[in-house]
From TrEMBL:
Main location: membrane
Compartment(s): Cell outer membrane
A GO BP annotation: monoatomic ion transport
Origin species: Paraburkholderia acidisoli
Keyword Ribonucleoprotein: no
Pfam hit, one: Porin_4
Protein name: Porin
PANTHER family: MAJOR OUTER MEMBRANE PROTEIN P.IA, PROTEIN YDDL-RELATED
Keyword match tRNA processing: no
Membrane-topology annotation of the record: Multi-pass membrane protein
CDD domains: gram_neg_porins
Signal sequence interval, chain numbering: 1-23
Lineage of the species this protein comes from: Bacteria, Pseudomonadati, Pseudomonadota, Betaproteobacteria, Burkholderiales
Cellular component, GO annotation: cell outer membrane; pore complex
Amino acid sequence: MKKTTSRVALSVAALAAATPAFAQSTVTLFGIVDSGLSYGNSQTTLGSNSNGHSAVRATSGVWIGSRLGFHGIEDLGAGNHAIFWLESGFTMYNGGLSLGGIFGRQAYVGLGNDHYGTVTAGRQYTPYYLLLFPYAQIKYLTGGVGAHPGDIDGFDTTYRVNNALVYTSPNLNGLTFSALYGFGGVAGAFNRGSAWSGAVQYAHGPFGIAAGIFRMNNATPGGGAWGTDSTVNSAGLPGISTVNNGYQTAAAQQRIAVTTGYDITSTVGVNASYSNVQYISGIASSFHDTEIFNVFGGLVHWAATPALTFSAGYNYTKASDANGITDGARYHEVTVAESYTLSKRTLLYALQGYTRALGQTLGTAGSGHVVNATATVGDGFNATPSSTGKQFVVAVGLVNKF
């Protein structure tokens, strides 16, 4: 028996030696599970005029979106490689998909070169988000509670572009740049329904800075909520909140932003951001003047121990006086985050956020429907904002990664 086993082993070894060597490839299965509870005061349904009441809810993905995915890379030789990424979002409290299709978070394939960069095609994040995120408030305060009210400037992950081609450069002595174009696919109107973005990032030691632009055009200007007829159109995203509710018939949206960060020590750092957001009217829009939001944000983060971290941030959002509004909406938001790492895979978190809304904005009907601004914290409460100018929320949860 031993002799037979040896002959088999020798045969296998000989066969392996005679087989040509193929390029190395890997496929990785990964996932994140985030589940918890949240409390919010004065909650109501978006667009409702009823008085809100406090509510405690089961939550999923407040710290980081729950997901399951696959990504792979194949070495093609000479510094070339092929890549793919398939990523699905889901909610813990009912097990359903959270972003439309089965791979609603991301789905793309591409080719890369170590010296010339990478080109990918499919459903993807924008360069505006990817290159600005490392210095944005939500990296430390999360998007569910820590995004600027309603995620008006798109620093959170709500913006994914379908039919997108993306080029990303290699790291050039700390400098990285990227560009995206999402095809609208409207016959006879190349620009309708399209989206485009560009961004540049520079990182050197403890300092980093990034700037970017993102624009999306509706396929049918004024033809309903922008999520239904643009290349940015999965699961009703980008989100509608009390901050932008009156401008959802915009012919186009545009965001220009800068984020920056500096690590003062190995445990303490500061970050700041500025963004300019425009909702541009068309002939069929329910408002007539371009609405502009200017958003300023800052935060400090501190790793008290290798396991325990604290972050605190403040941001201010100011809407322009337009469309019959003489006292444009203003939003003050304060967010605090605490996290404790139990292991490399498991983390406990607690989040607290408070928003104060002042001034006026447009209701769902657009021009002529001026209403008092109401508060919403981050983007996790877009569908359940406050019925007043104040909202306070608390969230706690557990994250496990694999």
